[in-house]
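Hi support team,

I've been running sequence recovery on a batch of backbones for a student project. Most finish fine, but this one hangs at about 90% for roughly twenty minutes before it completes. I'm not sure whether the input is malformed or the queue is just slow. I've pasted the structure tokens below so you can try to reproduce it. Let me know if you need the job ID as well.

Thanks,
M.K.
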């Protein structure tokens, strides 16, 4: 429920503000002092992203160490289903040979899913608890921070470049950028611009797709929270639908990563 004394605009703006720290004139600053600063750290996004990554690591490691060939428990069964689903997706999409792709795809799918899942926590609970201990701002959904989604997309982009050069060689990768789609020396400038834009569009689209969908979902939850006593049934209804978005966006991020890395392994 919106805090008393806040207008709708102030309430939404407050909830969309990250807990940010930065250095201004050599001194550490926070909050509004960091507006317009290029080098700033969104502490809340980093905290929840790392905490959920650690949770993912601990849970999967525990299940792996306690895995049994007999009748598995519910958690082991659920994880085996996810692993089997990701493995099948990799087998159907990735046509090269690599021991990295399947573990990477599994990690990205589960990590993005857990970060997206934080969107189902009622929007006032954790910020209210943080405010009670003196923390003025708190965003709990890391994937609504474009810095997080861009960081993940750039990591995938770097891997794509690495495998493109490793598999095809520098010459092969250069030919791919300059002699595709028109295999003629006169078309090299046109090909380079076309392929360069296509290459750079991959991390941009990968990050902005995830960010845009989750940011819009969070904004709808905030609008519902302004409705007072009507927010509970509407929150539940939107949350049920939003579960599909949460899973779908994690799946899309994983599949595009597999596709990009598969293209990097292909010889033309």
């Amino acid at each position: 429920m919106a805090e008393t004394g806040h207008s709708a605009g102030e309430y939404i703006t407050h909830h969309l503000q990250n807990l940010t720290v930065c250095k201004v004139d050599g001194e550490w600053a926070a909050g509004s002092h960091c507006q317009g600063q290029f080098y700033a750290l969104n502490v809340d996004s980093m905290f929840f992203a790392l905490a959920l990554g650690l949770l993912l690591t601990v849970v999967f490691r525990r299940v792996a160490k306690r895995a049994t060939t007999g009748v598995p428990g519910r958690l082991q069964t659920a994880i085996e289903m996810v692993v089997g689903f990701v493995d099948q997706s990799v087998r159907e999409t990735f046509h090269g040979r690599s021991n990295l792709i399947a573990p990477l795809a599994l990690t990205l799918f589960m990590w993005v899913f857990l970060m997206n899942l934080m969107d189902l926590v009622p929007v006032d609970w954790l910020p209210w608890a943080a405010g009670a201990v003196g923390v003025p701002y708190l965003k709990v959904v890391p994937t609504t921070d474009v810095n997080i989604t861009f960081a993940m997309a750039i990591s995938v982009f770097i891997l794509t470049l690495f495998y493109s050069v490793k598999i095809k060689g520098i010459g092969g990768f250069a030919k791919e950028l300059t002699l595709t789609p028109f295999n003629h020396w006169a078309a090299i400038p046109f090909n380079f611009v076309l392929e360069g834009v296509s290459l750079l569009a991959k991390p941009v689209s990968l990050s902005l797709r995830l960010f845009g969908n989750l940011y819009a979902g969070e904004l709808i939850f905030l609008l519902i929270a302004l409705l007072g006593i009507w927010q509970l049934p509407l929150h539940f209804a939107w949350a049920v639908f939003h579960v599909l978005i949460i899973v779908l966006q994690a799946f899309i991020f994983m599949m595009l990563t597999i596709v990009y890395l598969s293209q990097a392994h292909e010889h033309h």
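--
Follow-up from support: It reproduced on our side and the slowdown came from queue contention, not your input. Residues 45-127+141-264 form one domain. No action needed from you.
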